[in-house]
Write a structure and sequence with these properties.
Strand content of chain B: 25-35%
Oligomer: heterodimer
Number of strands of chain B: 13
Strand content of chain A: 25-35%
Strand order of the largest sheet of chain B: 9-8-7-10-6-1-4-5-11
Strand order of the largest sheet of chain A: 7-11-6-1-4-5-12
Bound molecules: flavin-adenine dinucleotide, adenosine monophosphate
Largest interface: A-B, 91 and 82 residues
């Protein structure tokens, strides 16, 4: 059995955490080949070769893959599919865009957000905003899947896989990249951070979000947000944690001015220690918090930031 | 141009799903069902394109049990022109997989020839996030998923997408598939007169067999379990107490 894993490459760099977690999830299924595709992908390939458990790395360096448009990357994966039983990727927005297209081109179902690999055909995945865990058995000849990284530890370093160049596949020519709007930040990345501080509608404004960010900086944490905070323009879209945002499972998650709707809980309830700060003692977030503090966030958060 | 919007009938987003005691699935008997929230956003976007004069007709399609007709009526009341119901199951607990849904939608699209399909990004029951992408593959069309802004410019759609790093704007050739994210728009409520009018709008009923699509699942559900529970912890009385608890727990 052989596994093809699409590495998460952004602007030429490998997202080591997401890729290493996916490697760990998959390595019991067979030799793992990591494909690094991008307009620059050599450095990413070198980084992938060092992940423990990686057997081989393929580097497809071509402008076609520069912005990870779904159609060319899916065509590349399909051109390689013959040699593999499992074709997988960490469940990032890029992979969620690409992998169902790959599956349909191969006439198989995609298995989204795998949280546990039971055996070569059987997988667990959360459904209904994480309120149920389904075990599914695939009857397809090939399994195309995305891996929920928050459910796995990262494979270690110390590998020395061989690295080979991979030729590009055809260009379907259906879409083109226009622009990216990416906020630069020195903070840790949300899905791999050990600590996350999130703000909700209770924070009240974009300016007020500064108090959330100060606490995060004190803790060396990433910043997250509820959907209501993003919809209200307090925080950018890529900070949203939840069923339809990012899934996080840090050591420490601090929810501030967040009520605890099921869609939010779906993205953070596997965190190790959860702290909730909310002025409403009945807020559902307290039902899952390890430590709850009832009160006004505008008093509590600055005091907490100072005392840590 | 014609715009086609697939809409799914799902558990209402305010209802917490309960796993059946025998592990055979989630209990949907007597549970409030609604249109998938992302599909409401997709319908809204299609109607706005019509109001702007960009689209001439909005056709909504649902695949599933007969009761999905109600979901289609809601879309018609919002302003869609015409609906197609494809009956593919008779038990509300049977979920049709995205691959089979995409195959049926492809057959519908071959007949209807829309220039744009706007689907939801994700169904909030199976949380697959797959159908739009699979449909694009089967049709050989381009795809613009997780859209927060859609502009039709001649023979292309310029779409801003919500991605992990922020926002990405791409251009896809038409015909194309767009999938709607949360911030694309705020869907309208149907007014009472429009709900009445919707009862007279055409709703065609078909079956999966009419399109020759086999809906047998590729993924059989072996078991459905409750997630590991999380117990409520304690309430602390002050910031000082919180800090000392966090130190004890070794997380600060
Ligand atoms: C299809 C769909 C997908 C969704 N996906 C997501 C998702 O991925 N992520 C997500 O988060 N949500 C998601 N939601 C939205 C979700 O249902 C809730 O609406 C949202 O999480 C609420 O955000 P909130 O807790 O910030 O706001 P609210 O529910 O309004 O809560 C605000 C809280 O702040 C508290 N508060 C106010 N002022 C103060 C103060 N001064 N001090 C202390 N506390 C204060 C209040 O007591 C209240 O509990 C989704 C919804 C739908 C329909
Ligand atoms: N049974 C269905 N009937 C109509 N549309 C569907 C159906 N299933 C999925 N869709 C569409 O595909 C989108 C994504 O669903 P999914 O891939 O199941 O997460 C939904 O938001 C709908 O627009």
């Amino acid at each position: 059995m052989a596994v093809l894993l699409l590495g998460e490459v952004t602007n030429g760099a490998l997202s080591v955490d997401a890729t290493a977690k996916a490697v760990n999830a998959l390595k019991a299924l067979g030799d793992v080949t990591v494909l690094c595709a991008g307009s620059a992908a050599k450095a990413a390939g070198e980084a992938a070769a060092k992940i423990d458990g990686v057997a081989k790395v393929l580097v497809a360096e071509n402008d076609l893959y520069g912005h990870r448009l779904a159609e060319p990357t899916a065509a590349l994966l399909v051109s390689l599919a013959g040699d593999y039983d499992h074709i997988a990727a960490p469940a990032t927005t890029d992979a969620k865009n690409i992998m169902p297209r790959v599956a349909a081109l191969l006439d198989v179902m995609v298995i989204s957000d795998v949280s546990k690999v039971v055996d070569a055909d059987t997988f667990e995945r959360p459904v209904y905003a994480g309120n149920a865990i389904q075990t599914v058995k695939s009857s397809d000849p090939k399994k195309v899947m995305t891996i929920r990284t928050a459910s796995f530890d990262a494979a270690g370093q110390g590998g020395s896989a061989s690295v080979a160049d991979q030729a590009a596949a055809e260009d379907p020519g259906l879409s083109k990249w226009v622009a990216d709007e990416v906020a630069k930040s020195d903070r840790p990345e949300l899905t791999s951070a050990g600590r996350v501080v999130s703000g909700g509608r209770g924070v009240g404004s974009e300016e007020n979000f500064a108090i959330i960010e100060k606490l995060a900086d004190k803790l060396g944490a990433a910043v997250g947000a509820s959907r209501a905070a993003v919809d209200s323009g307090f925080a950018p879209n890529d900070w949203q944690v939840g069923q339809t945002g990012k899934i996080v499972a840090p050591e420490l998650y601090v929810a501030i001015g967040i009520s605890g709707a099921i869609q939010h809980l779906a993205g953070m309830k596997d965190s190790k220690v959860i702290v909730a700060i909310n002025k409403d003692e009945e807020a559902p977030i307290f039902q899952i918090a390890d430590y709850g503090l009832v009160g006004d966030l505008f008093q509590i958060v600055p005091e907490l930031t100072e005392k840590l | 141009m014609k715009v086609l919007v697939p809409v799914k009938r799902v558990i209402d987003y305010n209802v917490k799903a309960k796993v059946k005691a025998d592990g055979s699935g989630v209990d949907l008997a007597n549970v409030k069902m609604s249109m998938n929230p992302f599909d409401e956003i997709a319908v809204e976007e299609a109607i706005r394109l019509k109001e702007k004069g960009v689209a001439e007709e909005v056709v909504v399609v649902s695949i599933g049990v007969k009761q999905a007709a109600e979901t289609l009526r809601t879309a018609l009341a919002m302003g869609a022109d015409r609906a197609i119901l494809v009956v593919a199951a008779d038990d509300v607990h049977t979920d049709i997989e995205p691959l089979a849904v995409a195959k049926i939608l492809k057959a519908v699209i071959d007949e209807e020839q829309p220039k744009l399909v706007i689907a939801g990004k994700q169904a909030i029951d199976n949380d697959m996030n797959a159908t739009g992408q699979m449909l694009a593959a089967l049709l050989g069309w381009g795809q613009a998923t997780f859209a927060s802004k859609v502009e039709i410019e001649g023979e292309a759609a310029k779409v801003t997408r919500e991605v992990d790093g922020g926002l990405q704007t791409i251009e896809v050739k038409l015909p194309a598939i767009v999938t709607a994210d949360l911030r694309l728009n705020e869907p309208r409520y149907a007014s009472l007169p429009n709900i009445m009018k919707a009862k007279k709008k055409p709703l065609d009923e078909k079956t999966a067999a009419d399109y020759g699509v086999d809906v047998t699942p590729r993924l059989s559900v072996v078991k459905t379990a409750e997630p590991e529970g999380r117990k409520a912890g304690i309430k602390v009385g002050s910031v000082d107490e919180l800090v000392s608890k966090l130190k004890e727990a070794g997380v600060v």
